[in-house]
Design a protein that fits this description.
The structure is a single chain. The chain has 32 helices and 31 strands. The protein is globular. By secondary structure, it is an alpha+beta fold. The structure holds zinc ion. The site of zinc ion (ZN) has 7 residues, from helix 8 and helix 9.
C-alpha cells in the first residue's frame, strides 16, 4: 500500500513578504519601473469570469449547506438506530431458528440495513436458546478462558483451504449479495466456526461434511461486533482432519466511503457514472464477504461476479468464462487464484476502458481508467513503465511474476495513493494518470515511484506475506526501498537510491523517530483496531532506511542473493522477520562472512528511535578517537515512554564508517562496529589538520556529532572545496547539523554557517536537504517579531545561485527530463526558496507569469514551477487571482493540475478566503474526500491561516473523525499536519484542552502532537534568542 507522500513543500508565505508586497495588491504603486510594472500594473480583467465564479460559489455554498443539513439528519437517524441496535447487542446476540439452512443473523450495530432483507424467522425455541447461551458463557468463565469469538485473533482450530465466492452487484441501488462456500480443514475438534464478518446481513448458513452428503446441524449463529466476527455454533463437533464446507448467503451495501466494497463516481459527458471497487487491506475484506481475515490464512479463491452488461467486472485473475443472460445481466467467472491472503484480494465493477501491453515473459498488463482519460493517453506512461518494471523485478528477484495478468485500475477516490492487490492493483487517479504536456518532473516522479512500490509488493507482500501485522514493515519497508532502486532502473542518471533517498526517506523519518513518543518498527498488534496504526511512516520509511543500511553493510550483491533465496523459499506462504534474517545470514556465510544479522537487526527493529554518535578526536597524539552513542531525542525534557527503561539503556550495534580528510584528500575506512556506550578506536591516518567524517554516504540510520573544532574544519573544507566530500555526505552534514541544533546538541549557528557554502553548490541534493531542514525552522519563526532577520539571512544565501540559474523555459521534452533532472530540480528548489523568502525578482516573475495567463488565457508558465508560481501569485496578488485559480480548479480535468491549483488556493493571506476554502473543503462535490485533508494541512502551513485551520479542525473534529477515523493513516496525517507547527504556550494549552475533551481515535497521533508542540515551545524558550543574536551579528559583518 502506498501512503500519500508529502514530497512537495509549499513555499511558506511570510508576514514580512506580505507587508513588503502590499503595494502589489493595490496596483503598481511602489513598483520599480521596467517591464514588471507594465505587466503587473493594469489589473487583469477577470470581471466576467469573476461573476460566473461568484455565482458558482454562491451555488456551491447553498449546495454545501443543504448537504450538511442532509448529513446531519442522516447522522441523527443513524445514531438513533445505533442506540436501538446497541441496546439489543449486549452480549452475543442470537439468531433465530435451527435447521440446516437457516439463521437470519441480527444486524451488527451501526450497519445500514440492506434492502430486500427477509423477515426474521419466527423465534421458536428462543427461551431454550438463551439458556443454552448463558450456560456456554458460564462454561468459558469457569475455564477462565475467553470464548473463541471474544479473542483478539481467530481461534486456530480451523483453516480455510478454498473459497468459492459468487457475487451479484446491483449498481442501481448500491447493494450486493453474495454466496460464499469455504472449504475448511479442522485442526482441533470444535463446535464453533468463528470467522470475520462485519456490517453485512446474513441470510443463511449451512455446514456440510465435504465428502458426505448431509449437513451438520447449526444450533445458532450470531455476530460478535467487538471482534468483528460471525459465529456458527454447531450441534456437534467438527472432527479433526476432516474437511467441511461452510456456505453463507448474505447481502450488504456498496458503501459511499473508502473501505471494503465501496462506490465512487466520475462525470463523463455531463453524466455521473458510478463504479464499485474494493479496498481490503488491512482488515476490510470482512465487510465484503465472511472470511478468515488474517494474512496467515492463505487459501485459493474462485470468484464470480454477476452484474449488468453495461458494466465490466475485474478481479485478481482473468475472466475464464462470461455467461450472458437475456435480461441484460452477465456473470463473469474468474480463474482460481494461487494461495493468497484476504487483504490483497480485489474486485471492481465499472465501465472503464483500457489499453494493454505484454511483457517479454507474456504477462498481459492493462491499464483501466475513465474512457476520456484512456482516450487522451493519460495511462500510457504508467502502462509502459509497468511492463519494464515487471521485467526488472523478474530479473532482480529471479522469481517470475506469478499471475497471467496484471491490471492497473485508476479510480477517482481511494484512501491511499494505491493498493497492491495481486493482479489488480488500484491507484488513485492522481498517482497514475499522467498527461505529459502538463505534468512536472515532480509529478512524474510521484507517479513513477508509486507504481514501482506497488509492483514490488507483487513479490514482497503478495507472493510472500508477513505472518502478522506487527511486521508490516517487512513488506512496506521493502516496497519503499525499492521505489528508489526501481526508479534508478528506469532513470539511471537520477541516482535516487544514493541521493533522494536521503532527503525523502532518511531525513524525513528521523524527524519522527527522534520523538520520545515514537515506537519500534516492529510493533505489537493485539486487536483489529491496532492494525491501521502500524501503517505509518515509521514502518515505511524507517523500514526502508534499515533495509538500506543492511544492504550496505552486507554488500548489495550478497543482499540481492539473500532476497532471491527468501522469496524462493517462502513463495505462496508467509514469513516473519526471523525468516528473513536467517536467509540473509546464510547468504553472507556463503561468501565467507559471518555476521549474526538477527542479533544486529533486532536492536534496530525492536527498539524505537536511533542513536546519535559523537566522535571526539584529534586531542591525543596517538591517533585515538573516542566514539560514544546515545539515543537521539528532540526534547530531552520529555520522559521516556517506558519509564522502567531510561534513555541510558538504549544501545545499538552500529556499522559506522569513518573517513579522514584534509583540504584535498579523503580516505575511507572499513566498517567499525560500535556496540558500547563509549569506545576508543585507533585511526591511522589522523593528522593535526585532518577532519573526521562519520557515516560515509549516510548509509547508516543514525546521526553523527563532533567536537566544535571538527565541525569548524568541516565547514572550512566545504567553503574551500566542497567536492572533496560526497554529495550525500554534504546533504547529511546539513541535515545532521540542523537537527542536532534543534534538539540542543549543537550551537544554533553551526547549521547556518554550513549553509554559507551553498552559493557554490551545484548539486541538487544538498540544496534540497537545506530547504527541507529550513522548513521547520521557518515555521518556528514565521510568526515572531524578528522574523525578517532570519528571512534576510536566507535570502542572502540563495541570491547568487538564483541569479546564476534563472528561470526554466517551457519546452521540456521527455529525453530532456531524463538528462537534466538534477539541474531542473535544483533550479526549482532555488526558485522555491527565493520566492518563499521574498526575493523581489522571483515575486515579479511569478506575478508577470500569472498576469500573462489571465490576460491571454493561455498558460505559459513552465511546468516544473507552476505550483510555486500559482502559490506566490495567490499570496501576493488580489482576490481576482484567487477567483481565477478557483475557476481553473473547477474547469481543469487533468488531475495533476487540479491538485496544484487547489493547493495554491491555500496560499492566500486573506483570512476570509482561507475560511471560505476550509468550509468548502468538506463538500465532497467540490473537493474529493482525500484532498480535503491536504487543504486543511496547507492552510495550517500558511502563517496567516495556521490558527484558522487549527480552529476549524477542532470545530469539525467530529465530522472529520467520522469521515477518516477508520482510515487511520489519513486521520493521523491530518492531526500531525494541523498541529506540527503550533509553537506558542497558548496553542499548547489549547491542544491539551482539546485532547481532554475530544472523542474518537487517533490517540497515538495526539500524543505525538503534544510532544512536537512541547519541543517547539521549548526551542522557542531556549534557543530562539541565541539564533537571532548570531544572525544579527552575521548580517552586520
Ligand atoms: Zn505498500
Amino acid at each position: 500500500m502506498a501512503l500519500e507522500e508529502k514530497r512537495e513543500k509549499r513555499p511558506p508565505v511570510t508576514p514580512m513578504m506580505i507587508e513588503e508586497e502590499a503595494a502589489l495588491r493595490n496596483g503598481s504603486r511602489g513598483l520599480p519601473p521596467g517591464p514588471w510594472a507594465d505587466a503587473a500594473g493594469p489589473r487583469p480583467r477577470t470581471t466576467e469570469r469573476h461573476i460566473a465564479v461568484h455565482k458558482r460559489l454562491v451555488l456551491g455554498f447553498a449546495v454545501s449547506i443543504l448537504a450538511l443539513l442532509a448529513v446531519t439528519m442522516i447522522a441523527v437517524l443513524l445514531s438513533v438506530r445505533f442506540e436501538e441496535c446497541g441496546a439489543a447487542a449486549d452480549g452475543p446476540p442470537r439468531a433465530g431458528g435451527n435447521g440446516s439452512l437457516s439463521g437470519a443473523a441480527r444486524q451488527p450495530p451501526g450497519a445500514g440495513q440492506p434492502p430486500g432483507r427477509p423477515e426474521e424467522e419466527a423465534r421458536g425455541g428462543e427461551a431454550a436458546e438463551e439458556e443454552e447461551e448463558e450456560e456456554e458463557e458460564e462454561e468459558w468463565q469457569r475455564r477462565r478462558e475467553l470464548p473463541p469469538w471474544a479473542r483478539p485473533r481467530l481461534p486456530r482450530h480451523l483453516r480455510p483451504l478454498h473459497y468459492n465466492l459468487m457475487l451479484s452487484a446491483f449498481m442501481e441501488n448500491f447493494t450486493f449479495s453474495g454466496e460464499v462456500n469455504v472449504q475448511l480443514e479442522v485442526r482441533n475438534a470444535s463446535r464453533y466456526i468463528v470467522l470475520h464478518a462485519h456490517r453485512m446481513h446474513i441470510e443463511a448458513v449451512r455446514v456440510a461434511e465435504d465428502k458426505l452428503a448431509g449437513g451438520v446441524r447449526v444450533a445458532r449463529t450470531f455476530f460478535y461486533p467487538q471482534t468483528q466476527v460471525f459465529v456458527v455454533v454447531l450441534n456437534r463437533s467438527l472432527e479433526v482432519q476432516r474437511s467441511y464446507n461452510l456456505k453463507i448467503i448474505y447481502n450488504a451495501l456498496i458503501e459511499n466511503e473508502l473501505l471494503g466494497f465501496f462506490r465512487s463516481s466520475y462525470v463523463l459527458h455531463g453524466e455521473r457514472r458510478f463504479l464499485g471497487v474494493t479496498q481490503f487491506s488491512p482488515t476490510h475484506a470482512r465487510k465484503a464477504f465472511p472470511c478468515f481475515d488474517e494474512p496467515i490464512y492463505k487459501a485459493t479463491f474462485k470468484i464470480s461476479i454477476r452484474h449488468q452488461a453495461t458494466y465490466l467486472s475485474l478481479s485478481n485473475m482473468p475472466v475464464e468464462t462470461s455467461v450472458f443472460e437475456e435480461d441484460g445481466w452477465v456473470t463473469d467467472h474468474f480463474s482460481q487464484t494461487p494461495l493468497m491472503s484476504t487483504y490483497y484480494l480485489a474486485w471492481a465493477v465499472c465501465n472503464f476502458t483500457y489499453r494493454e501491453t505484454v511483457t517479454k515473459s507474456g504477462v498481459v498488463v492493462r491499464l483501466y481508467a475513465r474512457p476520456d482519460a484512456i482516450r487522451r493517453g493519460s495511462g500510457d506512461y504508467a502502462l509502459n513503465i509497468t511492463r519494464r518494471l515487471i521485467e526488472f523485478y523478474e530479473d532482480y528477484f529471479k522469481v517470475p511474476y506469478s499471475l497471467p495478468k496484471l491490471d492497473l485500475l485508476a479510480v477517482p477516490k481511494h484512501p491511499y495513493a494505491a493498493m497492491e492487490n495481486w493482479g489488480l492493483s488500484v491507484f488513485v487517479e492522481q498517482r497514475i494518470l499522467l498527461d505529459p504536456s502538463i505534468s512536472s518532473i515532480l509529478y512524474l516522479l510521484d507517479v513513477t515511484m508509486v507504481i514501482v512500490h506497488e509492483l514490488c509488493h507483487q513479490w514482497f507482500g503478495d507472493l510472500v506475506t508477513p505472518v502478522w501485522w506487527e511486521d508490516v514493515w517487512l513488506k512496506e519497508g521493502f516496497a519503499h526501498y525499492f521505489e528508489f532502486i526501481g526508479t534508478d532502473y528506469l532513470y539511471p542518471g537520477w541516482n535516487m537510491e544514493k541521493q533522494r533517498f536521503l532527503t525523502d526517506v532518511l531525513h524525513e523519518v528521523m524527524l519522527l523517530d527522534g520523538l520520545a513518543s515514537s515506537h519500534p518498527v516492529s510493533q505489537e498488534v493485539q486487536q483489529a483496531s491496532d492494525i491501521d496504526r502500524v501503517f505509518d511512516w515509521i514502518a515505511y520509511k524507517k523500514g526502508a532506511a534499515l533495509i538500506r543500511m543492511l544492504a550496505s553493510f552486507m554488500g548489495h550483491s550478497v543482499f540481492q542473493m539473500g532476497l532471491q533465496d527468501y522469496l524462493t523459499i517462502h513463495k505462496y506462504g508467509n514469513a516473519a522477520r526471523n525468516d528473513l534474517w536467517n536467509t540473509l545470514s546464510k547468504a553472507l556465510k556463503r561468501v565467507g562472512k559471518s555476521v549474526n544479522i538477527q542479533e544486529v537487526m533486532d536492536q534496530w527493529t525492536l527498539q524505537m528511535g536511533y542513536p546519535v554518535i559523537t566522535i571526539l578526536g584529534n586531542e591525543t597524539t596517538d591517533n585515538i578517537i573516542v566514539i560514544s552513542q546515545e539515543r537521539f531525542v528532540y526534547d530531552s525534557d520529555t520522559k521516556p515512554k517506558d519509564p522502567a527503561r531510561g534513555d541510558n539503556s538504549y544501545l545499538w550495534q552500529i556499522p559506522l564508517t569513518i573517513a579522514v580528510g584534509n583540504t584535498s584528500h579523503i580516505s575511507s575506512e572499513a566498517i567499525i562496529w560500535v556496540s558500547n556506550k563509549s569506545e576508543h578506536h585507533r585511526i591511522p591516518a589522523l593528522e593535526e589538520a585532518s577532519w573526521l567524517l562519520g557515516n560515509i554516504n549516510q548509509t547508516g540510520y543514525f546521526r553523527v556529532n563532533y567536537d566544535i573544532r571538527n565541525w569548524k574544519l568541516l565547514i572550512n573544507q566545504l567553503t574551500r572545496n566542497h567536492e572533496v566530500i560526497s554529495v550525500s555526505n554534504r546533504a547529511g552534514l546539513i541535515d545532521d547539523a540542523f537537527n542536532l541544533a534543534r534538539a540542543g546538541y549543537l550551537p544554533q549557528n553551526i547549521p547556518l554557517e554550513i549553509m554559507r557554502y551553498l552559493s557554490e553548490e551545484k548539486d541538487f541534493l544538498p540544496w534540497h536537504a537545506a530547504s527541507r531542514a529550513l522548513y521547520p525552522l521557518d515555521k518556528l519563526l514565521d510568526r515572531t517579531e524578528n522574523y525578517n532577520i532570519f528571512n534576510e539571512y536566507i535570502l542572502r544565501q540563495v541570491a547568487s545561485m538564483y541569479l546564476k540559474l534563472g528561470w526554466p523555459t517551457n519546452n521540456l521534452n521527455k529525453s530532456l527530463v531524463q538528462a537534466s533532472y538534477q539541474h531542473e530540480e535544483l533550479r526549482r528548489e532555488v526558485i522555491m526558496l527565493a520566492c518563499s523568502f521574498g526575493n523581489k525578482h522571483c515575486h515579479q516573475q511569478a506575478a508577470t507569469l500569472i498576469s500573462d495567463w489571465i490576460s491571454s488565457n493561455r498558460n505559459r508558465i513552465p511546468l516544473n514551477v507552476r505550483d510555486i508560481v500559482y502559490c506566490t501569485g495567490v499570496s501576493l496578488m488580489d482576490e481576482d487571482v484567487w477567483e481565477f485559480i478557483w475557476m481553473k480548479f473547477h474547469s481543469t480535468t487533468a488531475v495533476s493540475e487540479k491538485k496544484i491549483l487547489l493547493e495554491a488556493l491555500t496560499c492566500s493571506d486573506d483570512r476570509n478566503l482561507l475560511n471560505r476554502l476550509l468550509n468548502l473543503s468538506l463538500n465532497s462535490e467540490v473537493v474529493l474526500d482525500q484532498d480535503a485533508i491536504d487543504v486543511i494541512i496547507h492552510v495550517a502551513r500558511n502563517p496567516h491561516g495556521r490558527d484558522l485551520a487549527w480552529k476549524f479542525f477542532r470545530e469539525k473534529w467530529k465530522i472529520l473523525n467520522a469521515r477518516y477515523g477508520e482510515a487511520l493513516f489519513m486521520n493521523s496525517k491530518l492531526v500531525s499536519g494541523v498541529t506540527e507547527f503550533l509553537n506558542t504556550e497558548g496553542e499548547l494549552r489549547e491542544l491539551k484542552n482539546f485532547i481532554k475533551s475530544y472523542e474518537g481515535g487517533a490517540a497515538v497521533s495526539f500524543s505525538r502532537a503534544v510532544e512536537t508542540v512541547e519541543a517547539n515551545v521549548r526551542w522557542q524558550r531556549l534557543y530562539k534568542e541565541e539564533l537571532f543574536q548570531w544572525l544579527r551579528k552575521s548580517l552586520t559583518q
